[in-house]
Specification:
Radius of gyration of chain A: 17 Å
Helix content of chain A: 25-40%
Strand order of the largest sheet of chain A: 6-7-8-3-9-10
Strand content of chain B: under 5%
Shape of chain B: globular
Strand order of the largest sheet of chain B: 1-4
Structural class of chain A: alpha/beta
Distance between the termini of chain B: 53 Å
Low-confidence stretches of chain A: none
CATH topology of chain A: Rossmann fold
CATH superfamily of chain A: P-loop containing nucleotide triphosphate hydrolases
Strand content of chain A: 25-35%
CATH topology of chain B: ABC transporter involved in vitamin B12 uptake, BtuC
Order of helices and strands of chain B: HHHHEEEHHHHEHHH
Bound molecules: adenosine-5'-triphosphate, magnesium ion
CATH architecture of chain B: Orthogonal Bundle
Largest sheet of chain A: 6 strands, mixed
Number of domains of chain A: 1
Largest sheet of chain B: 2 strands, antiparallel
Low-confidence stretches of chain B: 67-72
Oligomer: heterodimer
Largest interface: A-B, 28 and 19 residues
């Protein structure tokens, strides 16, 4: 279980998060929705140690995370597919996956993970030797997810996996996210602007507005909620 | 015709040395996006480390009376074994020096402005030069030949074993570097950090380790360059790094800063150009021409020979 308590984060003089409290239970899919600049990415960046909170606590499986640096958090079993994918565009698909397994030292386990990734994204297997920068947006997103899975996480954060991807591919990627959650039991924290889709596949949702949580509930309930429908689901 | 070939060999062996130094500039630029101006002094330190090792570590501190600090005797002089020992030893010492410089001078400034880091780099460079003058004295020292030096007639060409040594050692070092950068986990991580340090940290890469590794690698190559340079010119002094360092920097920019094969190519091209200019009636303008090349590249091809034009990351 991941628990965040009263998290406050500043960028210089700007306060991006004004005290966020949320819980992600093991094995569930939890989503954060909200408009541009609400602070969704900042929440993920705080969990993975890319920004240091001013105050508040981030606890994963009972241990404090917020003193750790980003590379140490990966060791704790958390992986982050960042906004904009951030694949290593100068490396091949193969090398990107190798980098995902940077902290893995058992060849058998690495090979098993690769096979799993190829089973959900066969496209990656066909393009192993290709330079990642020349992949399409959707393929890069698959690679970014694959790279994160190579670290064999128990907790996976995805920041707007649908961004800039053809609708058909978005559907595939979301199906795979559910599959990863169901088949591997990996907990998922999903940030999405496409609230419809996010609430459809998730168990629980938090609605963020200018650095605050204004509403949270079961995803089913949020989808019915008048306020959410008006603001995020197009009426 | 034979004179032309002769000049090519001379140019390549000078260019090799520029290439070895240029690689360090370009690799450090790759991971930290700044020019390590102290790099040319690591080159100088490499030559001095080689000098003292070749004399069996006979080293006297100022004020100390001809007492050797370490004694390392028994290695035959001017043998292949002694030469490799000196080369590898000096590379190891300088790798350590480079890592120390990064750890104590640059790492504390990791989040400071580029200008602060640049000024610090110049400061470190001056510090090393003055330290070397204090420790080793400002007068040039005669560098021992290390390798058995002979001149060999290759058809009409006269090639010294030194030149062959320089070319051979550079070739081996570049192949080794290419292997490390392309085929090993550390090398892949280096390229990943160079492309996107944030993404690298998200897969568990400790950027500090990779940056130290890069400084170590670059400094070891500079040390090798220092030894080869000293073998060719047979004289070393604390300021010997300044001009070759500047030219190697030109070579790195010429090849495309941040681009490893580019730095190697840039070094060789610059060495060849310089040698040919030197052999022509414009010989007194050799250095001016090297820098004119830099200015021309910056004007017409700012990304360098092999560099890609930098697309702003979103
Ligand atoms: N590096 C930064 N420096 C300064 N301000 C920042 C920085 N990153 C984010 N912010 C600000 O913090 C706030 C929250 O940004 P964040 O990226 O977390 O929002 P978001 O919900 O992910 O938005 P989007 O949906 O557009 O990705 C915004 O007001 C943004 O301008
Ligand atoms: Mg965002």
């Amino acid at each position: 279980m991941l628990e965040i308590k009263d998290l406050i984060v500043n960028y210089g003089v700007i306060t991006a998060l004004h005290g966020i409290t949320l819980t992600v239970p093991d094995g569930k899919i939890v989503t954060l929705i909200g408009a541009n600049g609400a602070g969704k990415t900042t929440i993920l960046r705080s969990i993975s140690g890319l920004v240091k909170p001013v105050s508040g606590e981030i606890v994963y499986q009972g241990a404090l995370l917020d003193r750790l640096r980003a590379h140490e958090i990966v060791k704790r079993g958390l992986a982050h597919v960042p906004e904009g994918r951030m694949v290593f565009a100068n490396l091949t698909v193969e090398e990107n996956l190798q980098m995902g397994a940077y902290l893995q030292f058992q060849p058998a386990a690495i090979e098993k993970e690769r096979e799993y990734i190829f089973s959900i994204f066969p496209r990656l297997k066909e393009r192993l030797a290709q330079i990642a920068g020349t992949l399409s947006g959707g393929e890069q997103q698959m690679l970014a997810i694959g790279r994160a899975l190579m670290s064999r996480p128990r907790f996976l954060m995805l920041d707007e996996p649908s961004l800039g991807i053809a609708p058909l591919l978005v559907k595939t990627i979301f199906e795979k996210i559910v599959e990863i959650n169901r088949e591997r039991g990996i907990t998922i924290l999903l940030v999405e602007q496409n609230a419809n889709l996010a609430l459809e596949i998730s168990d629980y949702g938090y609605v963020i507005e200018t650095g605050r949580i204004i509403l949270h509930d079961d995803s089913k309930v949020l989808r019915q909620s008048e306020a959410v429908r008006k603001a995020y689901l197009g009426g | 015709m034979s004179e032309f070939l002769q000049q090519i060999i001379n140019g390549l062996s000078l260019g090799s040395i520029y290439a070895l130094i240029a690689l360090g500039y370009t690799m450090v630029y790759g991971v930290l996006r700044f020019i390590n101006f102290a790099h040319s002094d690591v080159f100088m330190a490499g030559a001095f480390a080689g000098y003292y090792m070749s004399r069996g570590f006979e080293f006297t501190l100022p004020g100390m009376h001809k007492k050797a600090l370490f004694i390392f005797k028994g290695l035959p002089q001017e043998s292949f074994l002694a030469g490799s020992f000196v080369l590898l030893g000096s590379m190891a010492i300088c790798a350590f020096l480079g890592i120390l410089i990064e750890r104590f001078a640059y790492r504390p400034l990791r989040n400071s402005s580029k200008l602060n880091v640049l000024i610090t780099a110049i400061g470190v460079s001056l510090l090393l030069e003055n330290l070397a003058q204090a420790l080793f004295g400002a007068t040039p020292k005669a560098f021992p030949p290390l390798l058995p030096s002979k001149s060999i007639h290759l058809g009409p060409l006269l090639v010294s074993t030194n030149q062959i040594g320089v070319l051979l050692i550079t070739f081996v070092l570049m192949m080794a570097l290419q292997y490390i950068v392309r085929r090993t986990k550390m090398g892949t991580a280096m390229r990943a950090v160079s492309f996107n340090p944030t993404a690298a940290s998200l897969v568990g890469v400790n950027n500090d380790v990779i940056i130290s590794f890069t400084f170590g690698l670059g400094s070891a190559l500079a040390a090798a360059g220092g030894i080869l340079y000293a073998l060719n010119y047979q004289s070393i002094d604390p300021l010997m790094g300044v001009l070759p360092g500047l030219k190697a920097f030109v070579a790195a920019v010429l090849g495309g800063i941040g681009n490893i094969p580019g730095a190697a190519l840039g070094g060789l091209v610059l060495g060849l150009v310089e040698t040919f200019v030197n052999g022509s009636r414009f010989s007194s303008y050799t250095d001016a021409i090297a820098f004119a090349i830099l200015i021309l590249i910056l004007l017409f091809r700012p990304e360098g020979l092999l560099g890609k034009s930098q697309v702003e990351k979103v």
